[in-house]
Each structure stands twice: as structure tokens, then as C-alpha cells.
Write a structure and sequence with these properties.
The complex is a heterodimer.
Chain A lengths: L6 E5 L3 H13 L3 E5 L2 H8 L6 E4 L8 H8 L1 H4 L4 E6 L4 H9 L4 E4 L5 H13 L3
Helix pairs in contact in A: 2-3
Chain B lengths: L1 H42 L4 H9 L3 H4 L3 E8 L1 E2 L3 H10 L15 E2 L2 E5 L15 H13 L3 E2 L14 E9 L8 H7 E10 H12 L8 E7 L9 E2 L3 H5 L4 E10 L2 E10 H5 L8 H32 L2 H33 L8 H31 L8 E4 H18 L3 E5 L6 E4 L1 H17 L6 E8 L3 E8 L33 H11 L3 E7 L3 E9 L3
Parallel strand pairs in B: 13-15
Antiparallel strand pairs in B: 1-4, 1-7, 2-3, 5-6, 6-7, 8-9, 8-11, 10-11, 12-14, 15-16, 16-18, 17-18
Helix pairs in contact in B: 1-7, 1-10, 11-12, 13-14, 14-15
The chains are: A alpha/beta, B alpha+beta.
């Protein structure tokens, strides 16, 4: 399995988790940018178009759904794949996120480091 | 002449006082019962906990020690019996049963009786006992509070005979103008079990005009049925009856369907003494205080209930529930997720090589954390089901693939237990419209149970077949099996079956409850066939067109 040097934006407010994902993904060779909430993520994406956004839903200042709305994923960033990576599994938010163009929804508790990498890889491999 | 007149006045005074005290005390009970009926009427369904809270406010043990208990007996037809049984079981009365058990058109069992203290009255249908039935019928048909004659207690919780007071509780707010209307509207009775001896002796000592306990003695019986038990008789009554120093007076008193014959014996000398001012002020004050206190309690309880009831229809509450569930899920999961990532990193080689010992120790920590996440998941799903917040996200899913994936995940456990796995799955996809995530949980629970409850070296067979209208998934094991009498408890929440062979198997008692609910939500069904010692076969049926 060849690892492309893809770029990933991590949007996660919990600093311990944010760091963990950085460690894991950097080690795997990806280009990483991080944000701690939706607002920061919007700022970053003004000058940076990631291949994948790992997006948490519940964050202060601007949550994941709000970010997706403002980011205008479907229209302006069709090549960006957004993986909702959250511990939040309320139907309303999930539906909303998919409607706004999210590619996949993963519950954080399901993904160990290895599994996270598998998810990233399979997302990059996805032709859709 | 004036002495005789004085004596007569004195006797009138005493007897009036006694009868007033009886009336007032009984009226206090009536108020408590009526308050309870009001609470029930406003709330549609009073729970065991709510009843307990209501009765506890009156501190019966101290303030009304002669009252054994205060309860609620629900009236319903035969076809509602299973519902009521389930309702009581869901509230923790696992062995709820209506007695007598003979099938009949109407039942009226005691659902709640407080203070409970090992009360075994729950389930008893007082209507089946002719004497109590008489009072219940009177209460039901007239709408008036009724009191029974003294009767032996329903259960061996006291040696005294019991007077039971019934307040009928009706459905709806329409004016009920005749017995027929009342019969049709009857929903149950709120009742108080009163210890006859304690009740009357307390009245007597409170109203005793003299300094001596024997200055006034009484005997109280029912006028209309000479064969019934004596309500009360002072210990010295018969002895003093033939005593020339005592005056006799006989009075009749009607109250709540009873007609009492009260025979008084007054010591002459106590009658002519100036009266002690022991107007039972306490009864008056007590009555007033009780009245206002009661009103406040009922008002508050009703207000809280009304708020709850009205907002149940409010979307805002649904949103609030969602918020709470989300917050809970997030808060509970985050720390465990963090542990998962960091332990995972070390275990999965992201932090360099580790020794075998380190691997072993950290793996145990990782497994413990995984278990915690699993339990949190189960609890959250439970909470969602409970709050009615589960919405199925149905998508076209290949059931064959799904089952295959689940089996793969359980492979480790299956191999560890040295089980033989037999798969009878179709070679081609079988599509079905389901919520994959939810169905996965249900199937996982069932397969995991099969693995857990089969002794090592067992055989697990998973087969998937289809009929014209449904897909059928059967998980069969040759494990410990399930006893016939345990069957009703199988899907009950937090219930794990008592089997000495399986007490060391970990489990929360949530799996089957969840599985059943999730399958039910899909319009499917979960059934089981089992033989203790031989094994079990769980079958999930899922309709193809949903």
C-alpha cells in the first residue's frame, strides 16, 4: 500500500486528542495542519486546501456543522473529503453533516491509531 | 335536679367530644386519600416511586401511628391484566401477581402500599373479599368515602383488626351522576389501612375527661351486623359495666357507611368535677394544619406533574433530551478515547519497540479501556431507546457481508474459546433496508452471547436463509441453554439469568434488551428456542420490504 503525501487538516478541540492524531498522522508521512475549532479551521483553509479534513463536531466558538456550512464544501471544495470524527452520535447532526457534503462519519471510540490510518487510506483511495 | 342536669350535660359533652374526635381523625385520613386520588387523576399513571414520595410526606409512623399503610388499588378489565403486570414488573416488582388468581372479568389489585416495610399486600385484590367488597362497592357507586368493619389484616403484619377506608378514583372530569356512570368511570381506589384498637384507644385517651384512664371506658360495635367483630372495647369495660359508680350512655354514630353503637361508661365522680379544659385543640389545629399542608403538597406535586406532562408534548423537551444525551455521550467518551489513542500508539508501534512484558501489561489496560467504551456505548443506546430518541438511518445493506464482518471481529474470542464455527451463509448478497449500525449491535450481542455462554470447545452455527417476505438469521450454540422459567426474564433490562455455570462470565444484562429493541424497531422479531444443558438457538427475522 503506497502512502501518498497527502495533506490532512485536523480539527479537534480536545488538545490531548489533537496531539495524538498529529503524532499518528505525521508518523505515517502525511502533511498535517491543525485547528482547535471551526473558526480557526476556516482561517487556515483560506490559504490551504487539504485532501482530507478530520472534523470534530462539538467544538467551542464554531462547531463542525457550522464550519461545514461556512466552508461551503459541496460547491467550493469538491475535492476535499471531510471525515466527521466525533464522539457525538446524535442523528440530527449526522444527517446535517452528510447533507452538507461530509464523506464519512466515524465515531472516535471506534478508531485505534492503526484503524485511523486505515480510514484515511481508504478515504484517499475512494474514487467517489 | 341540677346535679342530674349537670350530669346529663356532662355526659353529652363527653360523648360529643369523643364522636367529634373520631370524625376529625377519620376526616384527616380522608383528606390524605383524596389528595392521593387527585394526584393520580392529574398524572394518569402514578409510579411506585411517586406514591412512596407522596405518602412519605405525611410521616405516618410519627403522626398517624395507628395507620398501617396507605395504598392504591387499580381497577381494570381482564384484557388489561398483562399490561398491568408488565407495568409493575418494569417498576421493579418482579414477582407481581394478582391474587386470588382465578380468572375473572375485573381485577382490582393493590399496586402500591406505603410505608412498605416488607408489605406483602401488593397484588391482593380486596374486591374478592366480601366484607371489603361491600365498602368498595358503596364507595364506587356513591362516590363517597367508605369505611369497612374491623377485619383481620390481609397479611400478617399486625395482630389488630383493620378498618379500611376507601376513596374511589374515577377517570375524567365529567360529573358522575349515578352508580352506572361511576362504575364505568372507576379507575381504582386509594385506601388507608387503620388499626382499629390503636385508633380508638388513641381517641379515648385524648378525650378522657378525667385524670384516671378508667374514668371513661367504651365499647364500639356495628349496629347493622351483629355478627361482625367488635370495633373496640376498653379493657375494663365489662368489669365496670356492673359497677354502681358508673353511668351508662349509649350513642349511635354514623360515618362513612358505618353505623356505630357506642356504649359509654363514665365514672360518676369524674362527671361532676369541673371539666378539664382539654378540648382536643390538637385535633382542630391538627386538622387545619393538615388541610393546608396537604393542599400545598398536592399542589406542588400536581404542578410539577403538569409541567412535565405539558412539556412532554413540547419539542423543546425533545431537544433538551438530545442535548443531554449528546453531552453525556461526549463527556463520557472523550477521556476513554484519549486513553485509546495513546495506549494504542504504544501498542501499535508508533513509539518504537516495546518488550513483551510491556506489550502484555499495556494490552490489558487497552482491553479494559475498550470494555469501558463498550459499556458507555450500551448505556447511551439504552438512554436513547428510553428517551425514544432512536431514529433509524436505513440504507441498503448486504446482510451477508454484515454478518461476515461481525463474525470476523468475534474471531478472536471464538478461537480463544476453542469453538468450532459453522457458517451457512449464501454466496451472493442479500440486500435489506436497515440501519446497519443498529443492526450490527443487535447481531453482535447475540453472537457474542453464543460465544460466551458456551463452554470451551463448543459449536456455534450461524445460518442465513430467506423466505418470501423476510430474511432469517439463526445463531445456534451448544452451550448452557436457558431454563423455561427464565424465559420471561430473558429480555429484561439489567437482568442476567441465575446460572451457577455462568456467574463468572462478564455482562451487563443489557445486550439482549438492546438487541430485541433494535430488532423490534426494524419491524422484525427476535425469538429463541433452548434446552438447558443442550444449547440455544436465537432467530432474528427481518422483513424484506421495510
Amino acid at each position: 500500500m503506497t502512502k501518498k503525501k497527502a495533506s490532512i487538516l485536523i480539527v479537534e478541540d480536545e488538545s490531548a486528542l489533537n496531539e495524538a492524531y498529529q503524532l499518528i498522522l505525521k508518523q505515517a508521512g502525511y502533511d498535517i495542519e491543525t485547528a482547535f475549532n471551526g473558526e480557526e479551521a476556516l482561517e487556515l483553509t483560506k490559504r490551504f486546501e487539504p485532501d482530507i479534513i478530520l472534523l470534530d463536531l462539538r467544538m467551542p466558538h464554531m462547531d463542525g456543522v457550522e464550519f461545514l456550512r461556512k466552508y461551503n464544501l459541496k460547491k467550493s471544495h469538491q475535492n476535499v473529503k471531510v471525515i466527521i470524527f466525533s464522539n457525538y452520535d446524535m442523528q440530527k447532526e449526522i444527517d446535517e453533516a452528510y447533507k452538507l457534503g461530509a464523506h464519512r462519519y466515524i465515531l472516535k471510540t471506534w478508531a485505534s491509531p492503526k484503524e485511523l490510518l486505515q480510514i484515511i487510506q481508504s478515504t484517499l483511495d475512494d474514487e467517489n | 335536679m341540677s346535679v342530674k342536669h349537670d350530669t346529663e350535660t356532662a355526659i353529652s359533652d363527653r360523648t360529643n367530644r369523643v364522636q367529634q374526635a373520631i370524625s376529625q381523625r377519620l376526616s384527616s385520613y380522608e383528606q390524605i386519600l383524596t389528595g392521593g386520588a387527585g394526584l393520580i387523576r392529574a398524572s394518569q399513571d402514578v409510579t411506585k416511586v411517586e406514591w412512596h414520595d407522596y405518602v412519605t410526606t405525611f410521616d405516618i409512623n410519627h403522626r398517624y401511628p395507628e395507620v398501617q399503610s396507605i395504598g392504591y388499588a387499580k381497577a381494570f378489565t381482564a384484557d388489561e391484566l398483562p399490561q398491568v403486570v408488565t407495568y409493575m414488573q418494569n417498576q421493579g416488582v418482579a414477582d407481581f401477581q394478582v391474587t386470588p388468581i382465578a380468572p375473572r372479568d375485573f381485577y382490582n389489585p393493590i399496586l402500591y402500599d406505603e410505608p412498605s416495610n416488607d408489605i406483602r399486600t401488593i397484588g391482593i385484590d380486596m374486591f374478592a373479599e366480601p366484607n371489603r367488597q361491600k365498602s368498595m362497592v358503596r364507595a364506587r357507586d356513591t362516590g363517597q368515602t367508605s369505611l369497612t368493619e374491623p377485619l383481620p389484616s390481609l397479611v400478617p403484619d399486625t395482630n389488630q383488626n383493620i378498618l379500611t377506608m376507601y376513596v374511589p378514583e374515577y377517570q375524567g372530569s365529567d360529573k358522575l351522576e349515578n352508580p352506572l356512570m361511576r362504575q364505568n368511570a372507576l379507575r381504582g381506589f386509594v385506601f388507608a389501612r387503620i388499626k382499629a384498637k390503636d385508633f380508638f384507644s388513641q381517641i379515648v385517651s385524648a378525650t378522657n375527661p378525667g385524670d384516671n384512664a378508667n374514668d371513661m371506658v367504651l365499647k364500639i360495635t356495628e349496629v347493622n351486623s351483629p355478627s361482625s367483630l367488635t370495633d373496640y372495647e376498653s379493657t375494663q369495660f365489662s368489669v365496670l359495666s356492673s359497677n354502681s359508680h358508673y353511668h351508662t350512655a349509649v350513642r349511635t354514630m354514623e360515618a362513612y357507611g358505618r353505623t356505630w353503637n357506642i356504649e359509654y361508661r363514665f365514672k360518676y365522680t369524674s362527671l361532676v368535677k369541673p371539666q378539664r379544659l382539654n378540648t382536643p385543640l390538637w385535633t382542630v389545629l391538627g386538622g387545619l394544619l393538615l388541610g393546608s399542608f396537604l393542599a400545598e403538597v398536592v399542589y406542588l406535586l400536581l404542578k410539577a406533574r403538569a409541567r412535565e406532562l405539558s412539556s412532554l408534548k413540547d419539542e423543546a423537551v425533545d431537544l433538551a433530551k438530545d442535548e443531554l444525551l449528546s453531552l453525556a455521550s461526549h463527556q463520557l467518551r472523550t477521556p476513554a478515547t484519549t486513553v485509546k489513542q495513546y495506549l494504542g500508539m504504544v501498542l501499535q508501534g508508533f513509539a518504537g519497540d516495546i518488550t513483551e512484558t510491556q506489550q502484555s501489561l499495556l494490552s490489558k489496560a487497552y482491553a479494559g479501556n475498550e470494555r469501558q467504551l463498550y459499556i458507555i456505548n450500551e448505556m447511551l443506546h439504552l438512554a436513547k431507546i428510553d428517551a425514544g430518541r432512536i431514529v433509524l438511518a436505513k440504507r441498503k445493506t448486504d446482510l451477508v457481508k454484515l454478518v461476515g464482518e461481525i463474525i470476523q471481529e468475534q474471531q478472536g474470542d471464538i478461537e480463544a474459546a476453542n469453538h468450532t464455527l459453522v457458517l451457512k451463509l449464501p454466496k451472493t448478497p442479500r440486500s435489506i433496508h436497515v440501519d446497519e449500525h443498529m443492526l450490527r449491535m443487535a447481531i453482535e450481542n447475540i453472537i457474542s452471547n453464543a460465544v460466551k455462554y458456551t463452554l470451551p470447545g463448543g459449536k456455534i452455527t450461524v445460518s442465513l436463509t430467506q423466505t418470501a417476505i423476510a430474511l432469517s438469521l439463526t445463531v445456534k450454540d451448544n452451550g448452557v441453554g436457558i431454563d423455561t422459567e427464565d424465559m420471561p426474564k430473558l429480555y429484561k433490562l439489567f437482568t442476567r439469568l441465575d446460572n451457577p455455570k455462568t456467574t463468572n462470565i462478564s455482562g451487563t444484562g443489557v445486550g439482549l434488551y438492546l438487541a430485541k429493541h433494535l430488532i423490534d424497531l426494524h419491524g422484525g422479531s427476535l425469538s429463541v428456542e433452548s434446552q438447558p444443558g443442550k444449547g440455544s438457538a436465537f432467530t432474528i427475522l427481518l422483513p424484506k420490504n421495510t
